[in-house]
Amino acid sequence: MKTIVNKETTLPVERDGKDSKMKYFDFIRVCVNKNDPQKGFTVEDMKKRFDIIDLLEDDKAELDVEDAVFENIKKYVKEMDGSWGTINKTIIEFVDYINSL
Q: Using N-to-C axis directions, what is the helix angle for 89-100 and 24-33, rounded to 10°?
């Protein structure tokens, strides 16, 4: 079991029509939704990804996840490497945090 903290960052984002700040769960959603443009998603992979997305819906302060689910999150974060659309220290801090768990 791993606990992921939904840390608020300094990066601005619009949430429900209001200005807000990105949180770590937002980064996880970005990683989970990233696909390989050559392959897309298999149905089995979609199921695994929706399991994660469903856990993030409540926008809690922290989330306890089973080890197998966490390993998928970590895999999707790693697969995002090289695909970030900007240079930002907050992204590095997020990736380092996930890798430290």
A: 80
In one letter, which amino acid is 37? Answer: P
- Amino acid code (one letter) for 39: K
The domain ranges of the chain are 2-100
DSSP secondary structure of 78-96: HHHTT--SS--HHHHHHHH
Q: How far apart are CA 2 and CA 4, in angstroms?
A: 6
- Residue in the block written with tokens 């050559």: 38
| 31 contacts: CB under 8 Å, gap ≥ 6 | 73, 76, 77, 79, 80
DSSP E strands in 17-90: the ranges are 18-23, 62-65
pTM: 0.92
Nearest to 8 by CA among 74, 62, 66, 54: 62
99/18 Cα distance (integer angstroms): 31
Q: In this predicted model, what pLDDT tens digit does every residue of 61-95 receive, in sequence order?
A: 999 999 999 999 999 999 999 899 899 999 999 99
